[in-house]
Write a structure and sequence with these properties.
Number of helices: 6
Helix content: 40-55%
CATH class of the largest domain: Mainly Beta
Main location: cytoplasm
CATH architecture of the largest domain: Sandwich
Shape: elongated
Keywords: Acetylation, Cytoplasm, Nucleus, Phosphoprotein, Ubl conjugation pathway
Strand order of the largest sheet: 1-6-5-4
Function: May be involved in calcium-dependent ubiquitination and subsequent proteasomal degradation of target proteins. Probably serves as a molecular bridge in ubiquitin E3 complexes. Participates in the ubiquitin-mediated degradation of beta-catenin (CTNNB1).
Number of domains: 3
GO molecular function, one term: S100 protein binding
Distance between the termini: 87 Å
Oligomer: single chain
InterPro entries: CacyBP_N (IPR037201), Calcyclin-binding_UBL-bridge (IPR052289), CS_CacyBP (IPR037893), CS_dom (IPR007052), HSP20-like_chaperone (IPR008978), SGS_dom (IPR007699), Siah-Interact_N (IPR015120)
Strand content: 25-35%
CATH topology of the largest domain: Immunoglobulin-like
Length: 215
């Protein structure tokens, strides 16, 4: 509407001959130009709808996946219903030597993302790729060295090593005690009652000499 007013003022300016009228019109012209400049940028409805479709409604972080490996590749399987119907450019994966990011755009009105940082070992960026299958995205990370990976990330490896160290003792009974303590600390009331009962019974048998000290 403001733009139409401005066009009309400009049209009148070309026809006005009296100085006073021209001054009034010039003032109005500047005023309209300033209003248009300060007006928030609004896009036509059809453009807004088109952008909404291309970007999807909102973004969902993918947490569930499966993985496998061969001599040359680490394979990560991500289940996404209907992903095979998307244009190929809507499924993007960016690789670095120790990470990858997956972005699936506008699948049933949503975007899906997944990030893997600190991969256990280096991968070849050039040799890595993604494949779109029925209801599944397969991310293929090409190993730099043909060796078996015990897990996917460095964090997983450290977590496993800590857990192993907690129970890997030279004394079997100590390892079992650590395990029982962990189960007791993390268990619900029913679990705690069960462990207490088993502990009392084992102590009674121990005192009668029916079983060795390590339960």
């Amino acid at each position: 509407q403001l733009q139409k007013d401005l066009e009309e003022v400009k049209e009148l300016l070309t026809k006005a001959t009296r100085k006073r009228l021209r001054d009034v019109l010039m003032t109005e012209k500047h005023k309209l130009e300033l209003e248009i400049k300060n007006q928030p940028l609004t896009k036509p409805k059809d453009v807004v709808e088109e952008e909404k479709v291309s970007l999807g409604g909102y973004t969902v972080k993918i947490n569930n996946y499966g993985w496998d490996q061969s001599d040359k590749f680490i394979k990560i399987y991500i289940s996404l219903n209907g992903v095979q119907k998307l244009p190929a450019e809507n499924v993007q994966v960016n690789f670095t030597e120790r990470s990858f990011d997956l972005l699936v755009k506008n699948l049933n009105g949503k975007n899906y993302t997944m990030t893997f940082n600190n991969l256990l070992k280096p991968i070849s960026v050039e040799g890595s790729s993604r494949k779109i299958k029925t209801d599944t995205v397969l991310v293929m990370c090409r190993k730099k060295r043909e060796e078996k990976w015990e897990c996917l990330t460095q964090v997983e490896k450290e977590s496993k090593e800590k857990e192993k160290a907690a129970y890997d003792t030279s004394d079997p009974s100590e390892g079992l005690m650590n395990l029982l303590k962990k189960m007791y600390a993390e268990g619900d009331d029913e679990m705690k009652r069960t462990i207490n009962k088993a502990w009392v019974e084992s102590r009674e048998k121990q005192s009668k000499g029916d079983m060795p000290m390590d339960i």
